Amino acid sequence: MGAASLLLCLSVALPLLLGADECQVIRVLTEASSTKQPFAFNCTSPLLTSGKARVTWYRRLSKVPVSTDSQARIHQEQSWLVFLPVAWGDSGTYRCIVNDTDMCRQVHVNLTVFEKYECGMSRNSQMNFPDGHEQILHVGKNDSLTCHLNFPKSCVLDSVKWYKLVRQFTAGKGRAPLERGSYACEASLTHAGRQFTVSRRIAVNVTENVGYEGRIPKITYPINNTIEAQLGSTLTVNCTITDSRDNTNLRCWRVGSTWVDVYYQESKRVQEGNETHVAFKEHAVYTVGITFLEVKMEDYGHPFTCHAGVSAAYFMLKPPAPDGRAYLIGGLLAITGAAALVLCVSSRFRIDIVLWYRSAFHSAGTIADGKLYDAYVLYPKPPRDCRSSDVDTLVLRALPEVLERQCGYKLFIFGRDEFPGQESQHIKQSWRDDV
Ligand SMILES: *[C@@H]1O[C@H](CO)[C@@H](O)[C@H](O)[C@H]1NC(C)=O
Ligand SMILES: *[C@@H]1O[C@H](CO)[C@@H](O)[C@H](O)[C@H]1NC(C)=O
Ligand SMILES: *[C@@H]1O[C@H](CO)[C@@H](O)[C@H](O)[C@H]1NC(C)=O
Ligand SMILES: *[C@@H]1O[C@H](CO)[C@@H](O)[C@H](O)[C@H]1NC(C)=O
Ligand SMILES: *[C@@H]1O[C@H](CO)[C@@H](O)[C@H](O)[C@H]1NC(C)=O
Ligand SMILES: *[C@@H]1O[C@H](CO)[C@@H](O)[C@H](O)[C@H]1NC(C)=O
Ligand SMILES: *[C@@H]1O[C@H](CO)[C@@H](O)[C@H](O)[C@H]1NC(C)=O
Ligand SMILES: *[C@@H]1O[C@H](CO)[C@@H](O)[C@H](O)[C@H]1NC(C)=O
């Protein structure tokens, strides 16, 4: 393993524009492997979760699918593309076509095959380490390195060994104690009766910072909340995810268990946006938007879920609540208006109301305001011994006849209703109006 083996460094431009087929390219990934190494790639796509999707691997623009014969050096196994092992000429683009019910998507993998140098690698340099991984470990924490061995279940992996530079370090279940530098893990892989050796390199950096430790992606938004949206409006909601930098988690928006782009494949009314990310030292913050070109009634109360690896969080839409202040002001205006109307009516028709009340309840006595009479009739009183004048006739006969009998008023008529010494009291307490 010490000598430089034969190597390749190839790259083939992706036929992004040449892909004259109808399948939309949804992801372009870059992978690297050393020659003579077993290598496998899983066509992971949110589409695969539907279960109905058929995955077919093609090499470059070939129309002939990759063989499914498990004895073939390059073959397809379920959604995996397996190289047992990688050879010089394998560099290039591989297309994984996901053919779902009337929907077709493709993932492109840009594979670069490198020459493998066992010695003389500069430390911690990913450039000289194309097929390696980098892992950051924290001082004072229990941590372990992971040997990145991703193969389909048909590949049996065992006896993982760890090396530091040249020396053998420890054996264990794919994990090893830590020390800064370059490590390699090696495992034996058995597939269909044939045995291979897989090795992976890991650049280890050690930090004293207690950085992002979570291996589970954290969705900071949405938070299973409800968002107000006007019917017919355009709306974009971002899903914000914090995850480790080297994660391989898929991030997407789903309706139920269906990817939004598939759910709305006809109308394209709701679409997933492009993923953006901001990388920090040990973690990255990803943003994936979901855009409603037009909010419709059917969107209300329906959960739209953002998925990031094993994590999920949703939001729901609801129609905007009517403006609370408008209600308050309207209510106050209505109450004020009603009060003003009541005041106006009661002052204008005070007498009529009293009369109506009296006729309605046959109340002959005092009513609420304690007054006995409706009006006090003042007239010039002739001397006691004189004969009744025309005034007396008017006041004592005509007025009571019309006002009291016909109209229902109660009059206090001086000279008819007073008792000696009671005038002033009556005058004070009794009338509502003068006549
Ligand atoms: C494929 O990978 C090679 C080497 O990493 C790179 O030069 C090339 O630009 C990549 N092609 C695309 C389309 O990403
Ligand atoms: C790899 O592909 C299989 C189907 O062959 C799928 O069930 C599995 O979830 C995939 N693995 C990952 C890590 O996505
Ligand atoms: C997808 O599958 C349908 C039948 O299931 C087939 O007619 C069509 O050609 C396939 N498309 C691709 C690109 O493989
Ligand atoms: C390792 O960590 C040191 C200090 O934390 C940093 O300066 C250096 O760039 C890191 N190396 C790599 C390869 O990340
Ligand atoms: C590390 O693991 C040991 C035992 O495995 C335990 O006693 C110790 O508390 C752990 N330390 C930390 C920081 O988790
Ligand atoms: C969503 O995220 C993108 C990219 O980070 C940003 O440009 C955009 O303003 C965000 N939109 C909303 C509605 O927050
Ligand atoms: C996503 O990116 C593609 C090109 O990379 C661009 O054509 C498309 O408009 C972008 N979509 C959004 C929603 O920004
Ligand atoms: C939101 O709901 C998902 C299930 O859809 C659940 O897994 C998650 O823990 C919830 N998150 C919060 C913050 O309640």
UniProtKB/TrEMBL annotation:
Presence of keyword Membrane: yes
Location relative to the cell: Membrane
Residues annotated as domain TIR: 371-435
Signal peptide per UniProt: 1-19
GO CC field: membrane
Residues passing through the membrane, by range: 326-345
GO BP term, pick one: inflammatory response
Keywords of this entry: Disulfide bond, Glycoprotein, Hydrolase, Immunoglobulin domain, Inflammatory response, Membrane, NAD, Receptor, Repeat, Signal, Transmembrane, Transmembrane helix
Membrane topology: Single-pass type I membrane protein
Superkingdom of this protein's organism: Eukaryota
Keyword S-adenosyl-L-methionine in annotation: no
Protein family per UniProt: Belongs to the interleukin-1 receptor family.
Protein known as: Interleukin-1 receptor-like 2
Gene source species: Myotis davidii (David's myotis)
